[in-house]
Amino acid sequence: MIDVAIVGTGGIAAFHAEALAAHRRRARIVAATDVKAAALAAYKSKWSVPAVYPTLDELLANEKPDLATLCTPPGLHAEQAVACLSRGISVLCEKPPVLSLAELDAVEKAATSSGAFFATVFQHRFGSGAVRLRRLVGDPRFGRPTAAVCHTLWFREDEYFAVPWRGNWDIEGGGPTMGHGIHQFDLLLSILGEWQEVVSVAARQAKPTDTEDLSCALVKFANGAVATIVNSVVSPREQSFLRFDFEHASVELDHVYGYTDKNWRVTAAPGHQSTVSSAWKQGPSGTPSGHKAQFAEVLSALSSSTAPPVSLADTRMTVELIAAIYASAFTGTRIRRGELGPDSPFYHRMNGTGAPWN
């Protein structure tokens, strides 16, 4: 049985509780903490949490869970992760996992020192459609990947940003590139693999934020594929759309906040209908994207004392792309993977030396 502590009992923490309830024979919530007493009390009552604490420090002083799930605002993630990891407690962290590459390195140092694991919640990786497609990359029936589209076209009312940490570089770390599109382009990276370079633009079009509300990037991958990535909170007709073009097939995913098998569409190139259809039908099916699917994999890994998905290495690939998108947009230059080290301001802050509109 995996003992789990919930850190932060806001809206996203309910998804964690629901997922854990679905795996009740494998895991249980043993404690929770939140600085808001009313939210903590309501969570305790709804999910029958045995012990609750007003601070993470008090929880860690009294409990030793196997796993802590971080459901707090992004600006708290790195500090809270280090606090848990340094005590040998593995961490599953909501997105964005950190505010910078510097914070990610601090988290990695703590994990390496203690032997505990750190993983990020990127639940779109775990739906059966994504699992099926990852297995087909490199399959001669589909051929080499050539192009991709990854568009997170969402809309948020101005009131959404009244929450103090939203749209704030110091607490949220960025705009839709950091907190909204991250799920879609993490899925893109999980399928296409290592990215090499990026050119991008970012703008503050309409929203009352310090951060961007729109970014557009062109990304080249090590396998030769080229992708366009758009992250928006100024798009009234909401859509999350990914398209992967291979030599012999196109695969599309069209949804908003989560998908099932029905959201995928495969189109074969002329002369390849039979082989493409056969290849796609051979994959897994029936699992929607979501926390339940990812928790299943995380709990299995922890039960066997192996690193759960999404690992620190996987997380770095995604966080580094975010930093590179901002660096390219704010400096007007092409950014290569591995270029943003401690000597770069974009290693320490996603807005580097400052957004042009600030």
**How many discrete domains?**
2
CATH class of the largest domain: Alpha Beta
Strand content: 15-25%
Tell me, rounded to a whole number, the average pLDDT: 97
Report the sheet with the most strands, covering strand number, pairing sense and barrel closure.
8 strands, mixed
Shape: globular
- Give the end-to-end Cα distance, rounded to a whole number of Å: 50 Å
DSSP helical segment count? 12
Number of strands: 14
Main-sheet strand order equals 13-12-11-7-10-9-8-14
Task: Find the CATH topology of the largest domain.
Answer: Dihydrodipicolinate Reductase, domain 2
**Poorly predicted ranges:** none
Description:
The protein has 358 residues and is of the alpha/beta class. The chain folds into two domains: 2-120, 3-Layer(aba) Sandwich (Rossmann fold), CATH 3.40.50; 124-289, Dihydrodipicolinate Reductase, domain 2, CATH 3.30.360.10. The protein is built from twelve helices and 14 strands. The strands form two sheets. Strands 13-12-11-7-10-9-8-14 form an eight-stranded mixed β-sheet. A six-stranded parallel β-sheet has the order 3-2-1-4-5-6, sandwiched between helices. Helix 4 runs parallel beside helix 5 (101-114). The longest helix has 20 residues, at 312-331.
Short description:
With 358 residues, the protein is of the alpha/beta class. Helices cover 34% and strands 25% of the residues.
